[in-house]
Amino acid sequence: MARSAILNVMVQTAMKAGRSLSRDFGEVQNLQVSIKGPGDYVSQADRTAEEIIFRELSRARPGYAFLMEERGLVEGDDGQHRWIVDPLDGTTNFLHGLPLFAVSIALERQGVLVAAVVYSPVTDELYTAERGGGTYLNDRRLRVAARKNLSDAVIGTGVPHLGRGHHGQYLIELRNLMGETAGIRRLGSASLDLAFVAAGRLDGFWEEPLEPWDTAAGILLINEAGGFVTDKDGRQDMLEKRSIVAGNEAIHAALLKQLKRAPSQ
Asked: Which of 25, 27, 42, 58 is the one with CA 20 to 30 A from 92?
């Protein structure tokens, strides 16, 4: 597959950060860990990976703004472009020795997502997409799964943990979907969940609340793989509303219908 210059920069950066994470993952018991909030951990590995990404992307495209998990919003002089970055999506998995985590980088141009990379260092799987150019896993073109019925579908989700989300609301949604699907999966890394939807490994996904750096790259991966992504209201306000529902056309519509059965609390 042919990649643009900007996507090549993103790929090289994600893989460099991934190599750093892989080294630290092998020494997970020795990591310096600080508690940022209930159930929300930040490791030295996270900070190191973010520094690598910030340095490499700033060098390649001076003036682009950043929205990053640890640094937050970093204004740029460019005014048209913004990187949306999660250097380690799946931090809790990482710190517990679970090999489900990823580097996620998206590029936004005038508010439109135009390029995306999700890299899984443990499996060496590289998901890439460019607007209008399709989605790829390494060099293989991806399409979302073709299943039409929830009864045949495996759906990914994120379970709200200590200090996060509306537990009662989520339990109603989960109850409504458990009896309608072939299975529910909770992997602990939203960027990988969304990449798996793009690859057809999961038929759909829903979760809230999620931050833009959790979902920006995955949104483009799914769209370019022929899938549908909205917020829970069926609108294109995923980054602002911090909710996401994804799948092929039929599964996406069915998920929205089921989720609307759960009254908001």
From this structure: 58
Q: Are strands 65-68 and 72-74 parallel, antiparallel or unpaired?
A: antiparallel
Kindly give the residue spans of alpha helices, DSSP state H, lying in 179-232. Answer: 190-198, 212-224
- 14-32 pLDDT tens trace: 999 999 999 998 887 666 6
Q: Which domain holds residue 21?
A: 5-141
How far is the C-alpha of 187 from the C-alpha of 233, rounded, in Å?
A: 24
CATH number at residue 238: 3.40.190.80
Q: How far apart are CA 176 and CA 263, in angstroms?
A: 11
Between CA 157 and CA 163, with CA 161 as vertex, the angle to 5 degrees is 135
Q: Smallest Cα–Cα separation from 150: which of 226, 194, 205?
A: 205
Q: How many residues does the chain have?
A: 265
Side by side, the strands of the sheet bearing 140-141 are 72-74, 65-68, 81-89, 102-109, 112-120, 125-130, 134-137, 140-141
264 domain-assigned: no
